[in-house]
Specification:
The protein is an all-alpha fold and 265 residues long. α4 runs antiparallel to α6. The longest helix is centred in the middle third of the chain and has 39 residues. The termini are far apart. The relative contact order is 0.15.
């Protein structure tokens, strides 16, 4: 009975957590897309500030990681393809892998480490300092003021970062192709363009948008659920990173399965 009780409690807690994520996401979506048409103010300056922090400031690390990932993909693909005399397919392997899967996923991991954790730490610190209570006293809705700008920034900037990561990954693969696979830049780019179809690129960008929603919801949810004390802020930040990575992988699995079933044949 103790075992079944623990499973039941874990299930209820999990469903309650998903419900909290849905509530946050729904409230933020309403504040972004509906409330401005009802005469309520949307804090666009905060959204722009969040977009700069999430997107522009993440470009250097995203570029570096994506370039190296593209080069690593090219090396591993060439290791197997040269056995069949098919080194000309290295560009195709790198392009498809980056746009469909690794570009969105690696971008999401970088954003989780930089932004998802900071969301949890920021809101958690505000809760510990009772700033959330003060906002409610002043008739400021915390979801509209804190979550909605992050929500808008993430759904716009994570796909943009993903597109840039795809480009840098192709460049990384091209660097290896020029050095060890007898490509020229012209032939490598041509092979890349021939390998890609619109479905590959669009599915990767859609995944990135879903990842941005998940990262925002989990980071903010962990911040709002922070307990009292500075130690709890650290725990919430760690929990936000771990749960965001798990949630992103699960969303990736589901979306990849759906896109596979709906892919043109």
């Amino acid at each position: 009975m103790a075992f079944t009780d623990s499973i039941g409690a874990a299930t209820i807690d999990g469903l309650a957590y998903v419900g909290g994520l849905a509530r946050l996401t729904g409230g933020a979506a309403k504040a972004v897309f509906i409330s401005p048409f009802q005469g309520k103010r949307f804090h666009m300056s905060r959204a722009i500030h969040q977009a700069m922090a999430v997107g522009v400031e993440a470009l250097p690390i995203t570029s570096l990681i994506s370039f190296f990932i593209g080069a690593i993909l090219a090396v591993n693909a060439a290791y197997e393809l040269r056995k069949f005399g098919a080194l000309h397919l290295v560009a195709s392997a790198v392009a498809v892998s980056m746009t469909r899967e690794l570009g969105p996923l690696m971008t999401a991991v970088v954003v989780i480490g930089r932004s998802g954790s900071s969301f949890a730490a920021e809101i958690g610190t505000m809760k510990v300092n009772e700033e959330i209570d003060a906002m409610e006293t002043m008739a400021l809705e915390p979801i509209s003021f804190l979550v909605a700008p992050k929500f808008l920034a993430m759904i716009l900037m994570v796909p943009c970062l993903t597109a840039w990561a795809d480009f840098m990954g192709v460049l990384g693969g091209g660097a290896f192709g020029l050095a060890a696979a007898s490509f020229t830049w012209g032939s490598y780019i041509q092979a890349t363009l021939e390998a890609l179809i619109a479905h590959d690129i669009l599915t990767g960008l859609l995944k990135a948008m879903f990842f941005g929603l998940v990262i925002t919801a989990v980071g903010c949810q962990e911040g709002f659920s922070t307990g009292l004390g500075s130690e709890q802020v650290g725990r919430s930040t760690t929990s936000a990173v771990v749960k965001s990575i798990f949630a992103v992988v699960m969303v990736d699995l589901v979306s990849t399965t759906i896109f596979y079933l709906t892919a043109p044949r």
